[in-house]
Amino acid sequence: MIRTTAWPSAAGAALALTLVFSGCTGGGSEGTEEPEGTAPPTAEATQDPDDLAAFPEHIAPEYPGSEVQYSSVEEAGDQLSFMLRAATEDDREAVWDFYRSHLEEIGFGVLQEHEEDGTHIIDFERGGGTELVFVSYAETDEGGLLTVSGNVNPEDEGDGAEEQEDGQGDDAGGENGGEAEGADAEGDEQE
C-alpha cells in the first residue's frame, strides 16, 4: 500500500520534470525578456559539467554511445533529484536492457512499464519506494531520445546491498561482543 501511495506523486513529479525539460537544449535565449521579480531559471546553474560533481552517475550512468543533451541535479529535501537526457541511435530494447540490468544490479526493482503519448517508460524503485528512477524512451528519426530521472539518497555511493551487508556485519559483531562481555561480567559477579 505504501508503494502505491508513494509512487503516483513521485511518478507525477518525474513525468512533469521530463515534460518540462523536454524542450530544453541547454542554452539560454538572450532575446527572451523576463518580467521583473522573476527568479532566473535554476537549470542554467546546473548545466555546467563542473557543477554536476554530485550527479549520481553510479545510479544513472550515461548510455554507451549516446550524446548527452541535458543533465541536472539538485537537492530535494534530503534526496537528490536528477535528470539525464541523451540521444541514441540504439533501439528501445537495447536502452531498456542496459538500464534494467544496471538498476537491478544496485538493488532497484521494476515497479511498472507503461506508455504515455508515444513515450515508453519504466519506473524503478528501491527502499520501499523511497528512491525512484524513471527511464523513458521516445523514438526519433535518428533513433531515440532517452531520459533517466529520479529521486535518490545522496549518501548512496554504490551498491546499497553491499553497504547494508557491511553495516549489518559490523553491528552484529559489536552486539555479540557486548553480549559476551556482559555475560562474563555477570558470571564474575555470581562467583
From TrEMBL:
Residues 154-173, 181-191 have a biased composition (Acidic residues). PROSITE patterns: PROKAR_LIPOPROTEIN. Residues 25-53, 143-191 are annotated as: Disordered. Residues 37-46 have a biased composition (Low complexity). Keywords: Signal. Residues 1-22 form the signal peptide. This is Uncharacterized protein. It comes from Sediminivirga luteola.
